[in-house]
Amino acid sequence: MEHFSVVQTLCRIGLEGADPRFRKQVERLRDRLRGGDDEKSASALDRLLSGAQSEHTLTPSAVEVSRLLVTGDELTSNVHPPADRETSVPLAEIILQPGMGKPSPIYSETLSLALGAMLGEWQRVDALRAMGVEPSRSCLIYGPPGTGKTLTAFWLAAQLGLPVVNARIDGLVSSFLGTTARNIANLFAFANRYRCMLVLDEFDAVAKMRDDPHEVGEIKRVVNTLLQNLDARAGTGLTVAITNHDALLDTAVWRRFENHIRIDMPDERTRVVMLSTFLNPLPVEEDVVRTLAFVVGKRSGSFLKNFADALKRVLAIGGVQVSAASILGAARAIVPRMAIAGAETSPAALFVEDEAKFVGALLASGLGIRQASIAKMLNLSQSTISRYAQDYAA
Ligand SMILES: Nc1ncnc2c1ncn2[C@@H]1O[C@H](COP(=O)(O)OP(=O)(O)OP(=O)(O)O)[C@@H](O)[C@H]1O
Ligand SMILES: [Mg+2]
């Protein structure tokens, strides 16, 4: 066959996609070649077809993996979430592709390991069953605001190839107190019917209700409905609840979850990785990123994302060439706007108000940022930096 090497390459690339329709067409081509007495080309395609098959049986796709974990009807864009009967407000949002348009979360090493272990369990249901155990199916993610909890729930779903049924419990509770119990039951019935990950965001709203002196009877009923529905879902669906206020949850609720993942404020190393990722595609040297991380201090991923975006805006509008000095200059323009305030001696305050003390603090921080880098970033001469360093040491 003419140009067969090109056709062969096309087939190899196409078969990597594991689309059954593509496979069918390659089989048709093989049969035609065989019928036309081109046995050599036909066998080459045979080899490609059987190679692709064994590869795909060895590495099942995320969707195949999650079919072992969660069954149910397929969610499509034609399926609508349940709504409150009186107000018609939807009780949840359906996200068919929870990973789309979302950045990959960045974690400390410890957190990465914890999440990886849980995900690994969810991805190896066959191995667990061979051992006679069932996988865990629920997880409570908790920690301070803006640390990536919601992002993590969506990322987990994306890794498993599962769509998300996302319910914000605060909305469900506060707007429809009179009908909350029924709404919760409807929400769970919906999630149990479909192959999905049920995400219960702002989960502490239920716990907070207990402090409400009104509607005591109603509140009890709501909490009980929630606990019963969580129990009923335990052996089948996959449920991830999220809260900022873990202290508000009582042990009865806490116990309902098999995994508890705390997402804390990022440590220094993680903050540096976050900032340099968020500053992409700006070419930013390591010393600059570490200095910026020092300036903003112990902040959440969400804060760092906003900070990096603000920095990019200042640089874009200023129309200046991106350099260590212009990045630090832009940071100086936004730090006062970003509510970084705090002690007068905080690195952020010194950065804006007292250059000499800032340089001293930076040198004393133990981050190991070289004097030459500091000089470049702050547009200072090497001798000024040495003087600041001496003043600081004195
Ligand atoms: N660990 C992280 N890795 C990458 N990006 C992060 C991380 N944490 C926060 N972000 C950024 O901040 C945004 C907000 O994060 P997210 O909504 O997941 O926080 P949260 O913990 O759910 O906050 P809240 O408690 O306020 O609901 C994300 O979309 C992302 O841009
Ligand atoms: Mg959130």
TrEMBL record:
Gene3D superfamilies recorded: P-loop containing nucleotide triphosphate hydrolases (3.40.50.300)
Stated name of the protein: ATPase AAA
Species of the source: Bradyrhizobium japonicum
Sorted UniProt keywords: ATP-binding, Nucleotide-binding
InterPro entries associated with the record: 26S_Proteasome_ATPase, AAA+_ATPase, ATPase_AAA_core, P-loop_NTPase
Domain of life: Bacteria
Pfam families tied to this protein: AAA (PF00004)
Sequence ranges assigned to domain AAA+ ATPase in this UniProt record: 135-267
GO terms assigned for molecular function: ATP binding; ATP hydrolysis activity
Family membership: Belongs to the AAA ATPase family.
